[in-house]
TrEMBL record:
Its cofactor is Mg(2+). GO terms for molecular function: 5-formyltetrahydrofolate cyclo-ligase activity; ATP binding; metal ion binding. It catalyses: (6S)-5-formyl-5,6,7,8-tetrahydrofolate + ATP = (6R)-5,10-methenyltetrahydrofolate + ADP + phosphate. Pfam families: 5-FTHF_cyc-lig (PF01812). It comes from Cellulophaga baltica. This is 5-formyltetrahydrofolate cyclo-ligase. Belongs to the 5-formyltetrahydrofolate cyclo-ligase family. Substrate binds at I50, E55.
Amino acid sequence: MIKKDLRLTYSSRREKLSPDELIDSSISIANNLLQLPIWNKNNYHLYLSISEKKEIDTSFILSILQGKDKNVILSKMLDSHTLQHYLLTDNTLIKKNKWNVPEPVDGIEIPAKSIDVVFIPLLAFDAFGNRVGYGKGYYDKFLADCNENCLKVALSFFEAADTITDILATDIKLDYCVTPNKTYTF
């Protein structure tokens, strides 16, 4: 299936989730993450959920990271379709941007090469580790700037699609995708 069709299909499926399903699935995903061999790292990039788009509630993952005393890095979207990364501290001010993405206003900047694990939002993924996001390319550019050992962990409410047929050379493959019922390793 092509990305455009997958975006429509999975956005529609996500829209139909009840508030209880969103929370229960988000908790299951956070619990399933604990089984991955990723917790010996230091710097973890996390996205903050866009509640208006019924994204996975990453507050549960944030609690895990803080409980394990990990460095949490958040991103701010720039007009150049790139991300600027900041260390989350007690003083970090979070504000929603024009797309309702919660992001840090400013802070201690962290280079992408320093990030060990990236939790990645998506709409759909396939059995080969390819992903479909919102289509602006922010994460593909970001992941291309990360170090070669950086682990790419996607989070999804739904299981894998069979195949994404219009993969680009600039698309970055996942290492893992965690769903409420299954963890995929690529």
